[in-house]
């Protein structure tokens, strides 16, 4: 998978440049957004849109959403080159959510540098992030692969459905953060992940199925594969945060006990609260709810999670989901090469090797 | 127009309630957003979405975007009742932009009460505002008026195009705010208004034309009518701020010299900078760029604007645009009643009587 990622990345970035060039001018604006009624200000739009977008993209990212899309296209027996503009859709959407999430979380850093709202101001960053929700959807109207109208419509309907659920997931997550004692079941936690993280994965998979005209059952299977992989990824993220904080996972680049300090209600926390004694559960909730937390308190919370067996529980769930994801793929008639890549992908995702 | 607004408002609010009920439950979530993979948290989504949305809607607003849509539908000879869910699309979009704009501007108040991010927190408010960008678009997929597929697709393409331009307009506006001396032409200012404010008006008009299957020329004419009216409205807003601040326009409910304090580059400011002596133009820019501004400085800036004849200039432009808007309508074969309502609407909009 690593080679596939490296192989496609330049082409993906080139395709993104076709949608949002590094240097905006009036000709581009007219071609992409339509004739102005009066007169565009290319300088303003450069600073409001192109600069923030490329600032973030140039900081890295493996473009795995775009590449996964292209792997599917190839698996469906079509030429990935032809669908490169469509590969940019989930990639730009994803980067838009990053900018908006960072504003919502008041994040200081992103990919090792100041979060975008610290560079451009909250207003510019937020508007750029939101613009990135709509900008890539115009690819469907431009219709570079000359899709028939029914596929264009199906793609729009799919995107709107998934982007709706993305916001439900983010909404649940934020509300749980902000409350001391939300009553969340493990299934509700998994649903939050499926919505918040999974829907972007579903967009990757379903878009590939729709533009190449796959039967519904195939679209459903690849969507489930992508969603399951994304949920497994999210749980893996939560586990890593705890393990790293307990000094077990080596370098992970996150601050110590981040999730506990933020009061995140992860699957591990939900499990620990359920399985611990009432006193310990209460103490864990207290630490999570506190406005500021000492290192000792963070360690105390982490010990409660560890003692409840929540790390093993979460790892088993994540592995189970990755297993299910692979099973979705086995039933499809992909060539060996594609099946191998997709299977590998579920591993990489959990092992954070992408 | 006032009667038309009062007449339709309850039906519009009822239709919005069908899309986002005041009390969210699992059945609604499943029906509207699709089956969950695991289990939704209706309580979380209540607080993340339904509560903020209804908090804002219950504060007032005339729902004129929805009603204007219904006036068009009636003018096109169709039954407005049948298209009520579609009337909610621009209304919910508009309220979403209000929430997001208030976060971007760090606004304290909205409709006389605290801005939503001061009640729910920035994260919840922002996510709710963004959710309201996608939520109403699902109406097209639900297809309550049983539209043929080509009209569904045309509606999606139109919405994505206009929402893209909305973000260009907002981007230009923000960038100009943040810069001391942006070189803006009057045409670029009008374009910013056409994008930022006009596109929501265009959505109202074009959506009505598309769902009822009007010819392209009709869609273009009503879109231009709506855009011109919106631009006139925006300029009217800028004039009112200056006039009110100069103690001429009576009660307007805004704080004194708001636009000057914010450093807004309005059409009046652009004109004043162009027409004043270099010293006065420099002084005006200096005051606009200042981080904090005394009442005396605000009045000084306002005098420079007034002396340059910028109020008259802006009023003439606004009246000219409203005239153009009316001309777009005259050529269409609407019944007298509809033409009267639409003509009235351009007046009401400028006189702030809606």
| Structural class designation of chain A | mainly alpha
Strands of chain A, total number: 2
Strand content of chain A is under 5%
Low-confidence spans of chain A:
none
CATH class of the largest domain in chain A, named Mainly Alpha
Task: Please give the order of strands in the largest beta sheet of chain A.
Answer: 1-2
The chain pair with the largest interface is:
A-B, 69 and 69 residues
Distance between the termini of chain A: 8 Å
Main sheet of chain A, how many strands, which sense, barrel?
2 strands, antiparallel
What is the third-level CATH name, the topology of the largest domain in chain A?
Farnesyl Diphosphate Synthase
Radius of gyration of chain A: 21 Å
- Please indicate the count of domains of chain A: 2
**Oligomer description:** homodimer
The whole-number mean of residue pLDDT values of chain A reads: 93
* Helix proportion of chain A: over 70%
CATH architecture of the largest domain in chain A: Orthogonal Bundle
Helices and strands of chain A, in order, run as: HHHHHEEHHHHHHHHHHHH
CATH superfamily of the largest domain in chain A: Farnesyl Diphosphate Synthase
Count of helix runs of chain A: 17
- 3D shape of chain A: globular
Pfam family, one (chains A, B): polyprenyl_synt
InterPro entries (chains A, B): Isoprenoid_synthase_dom_sf, Polyprenyl_synt, Polyprenyl_synt_CS
GO biological process, one term (chains A, B): isoprenoid biosynthetic process
GO molecular function, one term (chains A, B): metal ion binding
